[in-house]
Amino acid sequence: MKKIFMLSLAALVFAPAVYAQQPAQSSELAKFAPPMIPHPIAAYIPITPEKNVCVMCHIPGEPGMKVAKGSPTPLPPSHVSDGKVNPNRYECLLCHAEVLPQK
Q1: Rounded percentage of the chain residues whose pLDDT exceeds 70
Q2: Fewest CB within 10 angstroms: 31, 54, 58, 86, which?
């Protein structure tokens, strides 16, 4: 039992270091990752249920909706309920991260 526990503990300690060296964009898992935010977001923070500036551009989309290149990504149906942002999905930054400029 101790060997299994130590092996599991070692996996928890060393696995993040391995994954940190392999960004999601370069792996097969990238297609399952939430999209990155390609613009500055400082002016939009904090995001609250009452104030979510993101939805000014990122409107709810329809299934199969086509988006022109350079247009804002519509909210997927999983983020919308009754025509409004799902209360469990209003905080965009829990899943989506801003792409920071390279130095």
Answers
A1: 73
A2: 31
